[in-house]
Amino acid sequence: MAICYDKLWKLLIDKKMNRTELKEASGISFNVLARLGKNEPVSFESIEKICFTLNCKIEDVVEIQKEEPKQIDSDAFTTIELFAGAGGLALGIEKAGFEPLGLIEFDKDAAESLKINRSNWRVIHDDIANISCLDLEEYFGIKKGDLDLLSGGAPCQAFSYAGKRLGLEDARGTLFYHYATFLQKLQPKMFLFENVRGLLTHDKGRTYATITNIFEQAGYTIQKKVLNAWDFGVPQKRERLITVGIRNDLVGKVSFSFPKEHDYKPVLRDVLLDCPEGPGVPYGENKRKIFELVPPGGYWRDIDPEIAKAYMKSCWDMEGGRTGILRRMSLDEPSLTVLTSPSQKQTERCHPLEARPFTVRENARCQTFPDEWQFCGSVQSQYKQVGNAVPVNLAYEIGLEIHKSLEGVK
């Protein structure tokens, strides 16, 4: 579905008003006016201001036009993904047998990465707040209750009203609010919500308690588990909190089990030795020389204490093991959690064979992206996209189990 504001411009002509006058009278911003001119979604609040100014109804200014229907495999389960990033979760779920109706992503580079890799995907590069306020059934061309899976993971934010059990209003002002809005409006058969393990203890547990309460009030029975990607064919220690919900009316017909851990756990030797070249960021000359002294699998304690102390500066007197400082990986261990930046002093991951950070492509291999998957934007942006992604193989394993669950109601 595409949004069109032709009715608004005709109404302005009838009222002998130009666009600048509309902006001044309604209080909308230049940015909103520009989005209207490009037929892009704007917030419901902006539309309300315009309607109040023009003394008209929403349908007098906004029109949703039907696009050419997307050909969906009749046997495929449908999914909509929020906060899609560069596509780790979406790619794994697609591999498990799902067909995306739409993927929403605000970051320009990440959205471009999705488009360049999957030209057939409907990638919506926009603020989710501009989409969640729409008639989602009409926008995605699917009736309430028919969507098979809603997936994604909103960034972790504290809730102003946590613990007051106000339902969806508990989450207003957070990105999770829009995930919950999609859930309430579309009522998918199942949902997948992934996040960092720390969400369980965020704000003394109140944040996740509020989230689960909202899920339950929306009509879902939930299951949660912390999964380590290393257990599921990913050469990386990376723990994620996975929450899966089943719509209450389907609980008797649908059962879900988390995937079983693999017997073999891959290590860096499995993915680094034949890795294609890719963009990267080198260490400075001094740092490179120090890392040459660190053995594979070692860290700052494995070199001359005077050299380590000079490098660590104030960190030398900190408490704790500080095992992330001057950390060099070994081929016979998994990667530590892939981060969004290649070189951070207290969370370093030096390449086991060369004194340098991992390249974007090496990090992508640790996240189990296929080598042909491209990332757009600057080198820093590419590192960030890869570091923020859900490992593809982990997403695939979870997606397979959800697919098995939905087979009972197809």
TrEMBL record:
Keywords: Methyltransferase, Restriction system, S-adenosyl-L-methionine, Transferase. One of its GO terms (molecular function) is DNA (cytosine-5-)-methyltransferase activity. CDD domains: Cyt_C5_DNA_methylase. Pfam families: DNA_methylase (PF00145), HTH_26 (PF13443). GO terms for biological process: DNA restriction-modification system; methylation; negative regulation of gene expression via chromosomal CpG island methylation. The active site is at residue 156. InterPro entries: C5-Methyltransferase (IPR050390), C5_DNA_meth_AS (IPR018117), C5_MeTfrase (IPR001525), C5_meth_CS (IPR031303), Cro/C1-type_HTH (IPR001387), Lambda_DNA-bd_dom_sf (IPR010982), SAM-dependent_MTases_sf (IPR029063). Its EC number is 2.1.1.37. Residues 7-66 form the HTH cro/C1-type domain. It is an enzyme of class 2 (transferase). Coiled coil: none annotated. It catalyses: a 2'-deoxycytidine in DNA + S-adenosyl-L-methionine = a 5-methyl-2'-deoxycytidine in DNA + S-adenosyl-L-homocysteine + H(+). NCBIfam families: dcm. Belongs to the class I-like SAM-binding methyltransferase superfamily. C5-methyltransferase family. This is Cytosine-specific methyltransferase. The lineage of its organism: Bacteria, Bacillati, Bacillota, Clostridia, Lachnospirales.
